[in-house]
Give the backbone structure.
Amino acid sequence: MANCAQCRTTEVVIEDLDVQPPRPWCLGCATALVRAGDPVVNYRTLDGGDEYGRVLAGGSTAVLPFR
Ligand SMILES: [Zn+2]
């Protein structure tokens, strides 16, 4: 699986569909965007679950499984 476009070290969990080509993000970087107030809202999950969706729903109070 591809690595994150930002940190390039972590496996991606979502793709941002608002940019072309779609930009892959790992959970850590995507969560950083949520906390920065600029969350990815148009995305598709790549990890088979929706870990990021829970972060998005929980906002900055979400507890992460890893950092
Ligand atoms: Zn990353």
Notes: Residues 4, 6-7, 10, 26, 28-29 surround zinc ion (CB under 6 Å). The longest strand covers residues 14-16.
